[in-house]
Amino acid sequence: MAEAITHLLTHPRHATALATAARAWARKNLDATAMTTQHINLYHRLLETRCVE
Description:
Layout: H1 2-10, H2 12-29, H3 32-52
């Protein structure tokens, strides 16, 4: 882990690219609508599994 941190500290363009990608992923996957949809889908799958048994 120390090597990875050192790499990012010595390669700021790479660090910036990773941060940009992480921010985009978070905006896409962690907003309220996406989280609600994911939870509803999870509950549906769980209910379908229980109802089949």
